[in-house]
Specification:
The complex is a heterodimer of chains A (415) and B (437). Chain A is an alpha/beta fold. Helices cover 33% and strands 20% of the residues of chain A. Chain A has 2 domains: 242 residues, Peroxisomal Thiolase, Chain A, domain 1 (3-Layer(aba) Sandwich); 151 residues, Peroxisomal Thiolase, Chain A, domain 1. The chains are: A alpha/beta (415), B alpha/beta (437). At the A-B interface, helix 4, helix 5, helix 6, strand 6 and helix 7 of A face helix 4, helix 5, strand 6, helix 6 and helix 7 of B.
Chain lengths: 415, 437
Amino acid sequence: MSEPGERRVVVTGMGVVAPNGLGKENFWRACLNGVSGIKPLRRFSVENLPISVAGEVTDFQAEDYLDRKFIQRTDRVTHFACVAVAEALRDARLDLAREDPQRVGAVLANTLGGIEYVIEQIKALYTQGPRAMSAYTAIAWLQVANVGQVALRYGLRGYSKTPVSDTVGGLEAMSVAAGAIRRGAVDVMLSGGSEALLHPFFLLVFGHSGLSAPGHDPRAYRPFDRRAAGLLLAEGAGICVLEEYEHARRREAPIYGEILGVGQTSDARLPLPPSSDGTYYARAMRQALEDAHLEPEAIDYFHLDGRAEPAADLAEADALRQVFGARLPELPVSVPRTMLGHSYAAAGALDTITALLALHHRQIPPTLNCEQPDPRYGLDLVCERARPFAGSTALIGGRGLSGSNIVLAVRGGEG
Amino acid sequence: MKKLRRVVITGLGVIAPNGNGREDFWRACLAGKSGIRRITRFDAAFLPTRIAGEVDTFPAREFGLNKDEIELLDRGTQFVLAATNLALRDGGLLDPTGRLLPTIERDSCGVAIGTAMGPVEEGERLWRLFTAEGTQPPRYPAGGVQLARLLLSSMPATAIAAHHQLHGPSTVIATGCSAGADAIGQAFWSIQEGRASRMLAGGCDSSINPSSINVFSIMRALSTNNDEPERASRPYDARRDGFVMSEGAGVLLLEERELALARGATLYAELLAFVSNNNAYHMTALPADGAPLQELLRQALAEAGIEGRELGYINSHGSSTPFNEAAETVAYKAVFGEDAYRIPISATKSMIGHSQGAASAIEALVTALALHHQVLPPTINQEQPDPQCDLDYVPNVARPASFQLALTHSSGFGGVNTALVLARPEYREGRALEVQR
């Protein structure tokens, strides 16, 4: 991406709604201190549910940020998105009034849409008849709601997209947004993901589908541990302001880091059971390195996907071994998401933010709950406590439930 | 920016209410055949709208789906897998047994699919089962039930990648009514920029279920012309009263041009430009002056490096809603001036309704076929002219035309507007010669 004449993409702002911290500063402090946001669910009764603990965003009051009418017409997933966007814009010190609205867009990933809202309305339809449904249902429900509402609130008229690639959607949003800036379709992008999937009906679906572990132990999310048995769920949002480098420099914006390259492949297999073959994930890593004009030796930290299922963890370790070879045991790796749970489309965005903050503050946040790391993976997993390091360049890996592999290469600071 | 590679359309696959497969579908479109009927997928008696465009014949096995796929995949995903197989067959990339030819490189072949609704019919069915029609808190049924497909928003692309072992980038985009065209656009960029050499790109949706119909009814977005289903979708006509929900899928095989030429493929058209913006005006509508559409059309012309008057055909969003077509018409006049009256415009939704995420992909496919065959499909149900819509909408009857360039555009939920510009495969060479002269 740094070849002459190529447009470079930097990150100039961040907004976070996470189970272990509202706002970027609180979130980062919690991550450094190994504070988990995974707790017994409080927003509804968990009686008869296979999942009773998750990364729930508990101290969030939409009324503190958004007006009543807006709150009533939108779902929690959109509330999260809007609050994270507002913080990211403030953080980037971006005055949209000074921007050409056609050159500013949004790429916001999401998986299930506004499910809490729509399920209430479907209930109204079935128990009270068609007229009992709110006229705002479609707008609140469809996955495109977040992009639409954010564009409307901030007058963004540029390129806008909604990737829905389940657990890897947030990383894909970064890839799509960076791609649009690189090719010149826009100069500024609000990019990330938002998810509010903790609902009794969907917890039943998750718990019985084999796609997440039935969860009653808040410490059960332990990738690369001998006892790994699946991940725990979460909700939240992560938003980055991505910006063309010269544009950011001209307005003297804070620069957290640069998106240097992207790789994307597919395992091309249906999701269950997960595969232990990391070949195509490794290929995505190599693509990201090549796109960034980097050799594997240049990578100082790998921000893992950490699905916490033995086969999936084996595949991730296998992919890393294919790319980093004998150097792998010296490469620090971590799954800070163990402090949050997996918030599907928000996860990749929160991972990107965490990795950039790690480079910025020169501290790798820890992987929690991994008291019995399994040596067969051969990884230098940063466990329990944050680790200071001096590196500048990282890869961020993400894997979709259905085999989509996305890897971002990032560098911290002005570069 | 690296030099951009050229991208051509070499295969077309479609599942639609008025015909499956390129040939049947195109014949139906040229004959002005409507696929709108009374709803049969559920008893719609309790709803104000009781018509839709259903795919009434769908022999999944004949379209190459295996037993597991028929059992496990939601209906929209089955449609898009079938449309993919049709597109690959049409493009000459399948062997007689339906397998991808061994010479086709799978690592650089990807998938991009748009969907607006996802597996919503399945979601509603499970919710009814778990809650006894909403009368009890959700409970897992004693007999067990197949669940995973509900959670995998990426399934339409994954099913295709898995079926044909395609390891390139695989993605699903959910930008409402523009989703299919957005997926085609993203795929186009992937090939242009060298991240893939071939892409299967398109859209799908199947959401003819009570809650999906009613969420649009309650917004008064749907036609209630229940007595004359085939005449209910009437873009530009004075009596249009809302869109008609439908289902289906459309898939385009996109190829890097040199690769397609080397294997002697039929080139339906070249993709010249993909542009997309946001209204930032309303979640579901264009402003009366169609300003965002004006911007979009100007960007599309600039990106393609062409003049408005060169366009020989526009396949419009034309959803049959009172506001949309009036705003579209204003935007055409603002951008094309007097030429707006000379550029034929037609709306495929008049025949097949609005298949959500599939619609804009099927419309791109129609645009490619119009260029290829040099025939313009009609907008049907043009009976009572609307003075606000006074352009040439190719009323009721298909007509031959001689043209090199066409544009298709869509607008919709979330305010996303998208346009694609297509050209006859020889267009750029012809223009280069002209410049030399």
